[in-house]
Every structure is written in C-alpha cells, then in structure tokens.
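Input (structure):
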C-alpha cells in the first residue's frame, strides 16, 4: 500500500455518529488518503467516487468478507503502563492495601531503563494487538522512564497521551519527589515530548491522586497544563476508604479538592468516579470534565459499581479504561464486557433501571473515549475529514472463542465481538491511516 493511493474499505461499516447512537452503513465504503478519511458512503455511490479519484490517484480496494465489519479504533482512557507486570495479581486486596503491597513496589523498579523498555514495549504492542489505537497512559514517577514509554508509543505507531506521574507524598522514601523536583521534572518531560513534534503523541499532566499531592502542588501542575494547553488526568472517588481519607485530609469533597486546585477543566479526565455525590457530579459537569469508567478494576479491587447511566444523565463525557493493573486485562473489549456486567448487576437492586446495551458500550469505547480525551475532532468515528483509526473485525477466524456456525447480520457480528471476541478477531489495526497490525486481510 503506497502513501499516495486512495484506499477504499468496502463492506459493512459500523460507528457512532453521535452520543449513544450507532449507525450501520451496510455494504458501504470508507475512502482514505494518507491518514485522512476523504469520503464515506454506500455502495451505490462507489462508482462515482472511483471515477472522480482515478484520474489523480492510484486506487486500492480492501473488500471485507461477510463475517467482517469495519469499526473505529478502540480508545483506552485510563491505563497504567508500569503496572502491566502485575496484571492479575493482588486482587485479594482493596485499593489502598494493593497500592502499598504490590503497586508502589513494582513502580519503584523503573529507574532501570532496560526493564522499563521491556515492559513498555510489551504493553504498547499488547494494547495495539487488542485494537487500542489510542491510549491515555500513566507513565512513571521517573522522567527518563516516562520518556521510554513515549519512545515505545512512537516506535509502534500508537496514538497516545502520556503522563509523567507526580507524587510528593509516598510511603516509600525512594519513590517520591519534592514539589520543586516534581515541577521541574514535569516541565522537562512536557518540553521533551512537545519538541518531538509527533502528531500522534502528546503529554498529559498527571497528579496521581489527591492523597499523593497537596493543594499547592496540584495548583502548580494545573498551571503547567494551562500554560501549555494540556490535558490533566488523575483519580477520583474510587474507594470508600480513599474518599473518607480525602475528606479527612482536606475537609471538603474529592471534586472540591481538585476544583480548589484549578484542576477541574474541560481538559480533565477523572478515573473511576464511583462515589461522586450529586453536588460533585454537578460541579464536574459544570467544569466540562470527563470520567473514565474502569469496571474491571472496580470489580477486581472490590471498589464498587459505577453507575454509568447516572453519570451520563449529567451530560458528562465518558469513556472506558482498562486501568491495568487494577484491571487484569489490557483489552478494551474486556472492559466493554465488564461495563455491561456492572450495569446488569446494578439493575438487580434498582427498580426500573435500564442496563447498558452492547451499542452503549461500543459508543463508550469509541466516540465516547474520543470525546473524553478531546480527540473527537480527529478520531472516534468515520466522518469525512477525520483521521483513519480503525479495526477490521472478523468473527469467522479459526481458534478463537467465537465459533461462527450460523450467518449473522452486521449488528449481530458487532454484538458477538463485544460479548465473545478477543484480539484474534481483530485482523487489522490502522492508526492515522497506517497499518500497524495485519492478520487475515487480503489487500488488492
């Protein structure tokens, strides 16, 4: 495939044109030039599109099989790259004990840059394998290690926001910064990433959570974000004991702490949000922040059940997060299933509660994630002018969890993928128009 060719992806196409809406373009096409979508339509308009373009461009056509669909790339709005070796470990603990017994001990090892490279290459490759075209990463406390993650993301062609973690309060004397070190190291990290001028990768300001940074420090980090027009990511209201400790420490709610620190803006992504009060949700909505729903982690660390329907009712932007290694899987497909299970469990105890559907979580994993990360002007669905981040999904692949024994319509294929699929059903992954994973797809 050459860069000056227009690639036509022809077959069944599914995306979300707007919030909680799903559109099937049956027997349609998406035309891509370099990294950009230049046309979308149904088969009836394909001949005229080809005629218009053939005079100036080489045409390459990718025909999808009946068992395949083209969908937007999946978006992970909250993942801890350094924690990947611990995936599947420590779930006999709850959040705060898990941090002390497992997480901080592992994260202290990232002074070793060879170890950092090994882990970060693995998590970037693994998430791409699972169809994560965009990831919002917590990196390391250590600046050099955080830059190693940036290197891995660039090397393998993923779209990402990467944040150097900030933590001036810690149970470990060798895993903590002074406020001055944190400020200077964060500035150095931000400047290094911005100087690379890589369109797919941007820095994000990352105070770990309200118990690891004081108000003044968080305000300083907010200033860096504002001065450089950057996003901010942190945690909020994940665990009952954590929420109580925040109130004990500051004498105000979790959301109020961040608001007082000037961290609640339209460029802020808050992970979890299980125990937010109505007042806090109103504040978050007023500040136009986003929430990353991390259902796998919320279950494994016994944190609680997040009511996504309630949060969406406040018109708050929402995406899905794997929260590796709080969550055991780097797969957003697994996160979609966890979100569905969580929502069904809530319906057992709440009268007239409408659980999420497979199309709802598909929205959260694609356009919802793009909106949460402020990237919906670039990615998240198949609109003309957007960049081409996409997956070809096939439910008729040998040796997967899906036995394709009866023909399915395109929406049923999507449903099967959400409930039964895994990385083996993702046969091609494109980021910014570039093929970064190829399986069983034939190019003509």
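Output (sequence):
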């Amino acid at each position: 495939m050459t860069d000056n060719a227009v690639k036509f992806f022809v077959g069944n196409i599914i995306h979300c044109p707007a919030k909680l809406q799903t559109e099937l373009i049956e027997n349609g096409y998406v035309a891509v030039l370099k990294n950009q979508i230049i046309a979308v339509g149904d088969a009836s308009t394909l001949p005229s599109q080809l005629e218009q373009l053939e005079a100036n461009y080489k045409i390459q056509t990718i025909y999808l099989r009946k068992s395949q669909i083209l969908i937007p790339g999946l978006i992970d709005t909250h993942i801890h790259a350094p924690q990947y070796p611990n995936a599947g470990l420590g779930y006999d603990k709850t959040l705060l004990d898990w941090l002390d017994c497992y997480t901080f001990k592992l994260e202290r090892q990232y002074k070793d840059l060879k170890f950092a490279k090994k882990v970060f290459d693995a998590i970037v490759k693994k998430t791409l394998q699972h169809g994560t075209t965009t990831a919002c990463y917590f990196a390391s406390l250590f600046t050099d290690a955080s830059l190693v993650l940036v290197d891995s993301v660039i090397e393998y062609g993923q779209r990402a926001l990467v944040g150097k973690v900030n933590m001036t309060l810690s149970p470990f004397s060798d895993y903590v910064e002074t406020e001055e070190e944190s400020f200077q190291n964060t500035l150095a990290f931000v400047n290094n990433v911005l100087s690379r001028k890589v369109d797919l990768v941007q820095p994000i300001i990352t105070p770990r959570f309200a118990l690891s940074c004081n108000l003044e420090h968080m305000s300083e980090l907010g200033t860096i974000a504002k001065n450089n027009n950057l996003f901010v990511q942190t945690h909020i209201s994940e665990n009952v004991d954590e929420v109580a400790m925040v109130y004990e420490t500051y004498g105000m709610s979790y959301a109020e702490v961040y608001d007082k620190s000037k961290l609640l803006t339209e460029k802020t992504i808050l992970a979890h949000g299980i125990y937010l009060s109505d007042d806090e949700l109103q504040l978050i909505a007023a500040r136009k922040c986003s929430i990353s729903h991390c259902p796998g982690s919320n279950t494994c660390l016994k944190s609680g059940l997040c009511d996504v329907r309630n949060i969406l009712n406040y018109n708050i932007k929402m995406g899905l997060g794997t929260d590796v290694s709080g969550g055991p899987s780097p797969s957003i497909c697994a996160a979609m299933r966890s979100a569905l299970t969580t929502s069904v469990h809530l319906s057992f105890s709440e009268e007239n509660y409408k659980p999420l559907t497979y199309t709802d979580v598909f929205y959260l994993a694609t356009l919802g994630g793009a909106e949460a990360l402020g990237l919906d002007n670039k990615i998240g669905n198949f609109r003309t002018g957007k960049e081409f981040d996409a997956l070809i999904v096939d439910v008729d692949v040998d040796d997967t969890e899906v036995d394709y024994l009866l023909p399915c319509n395109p929406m049923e294929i999507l449903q099967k993928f959400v409930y039964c699929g895994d990385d083996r059903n993702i046969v091609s992954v494109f980021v910014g128009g570039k093929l970064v994973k190829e399986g069983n797809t034939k190019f003509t």
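Notes: The radius of gyration is 21 Å. DSSP finds 15 helices and 17 strands in the chain.
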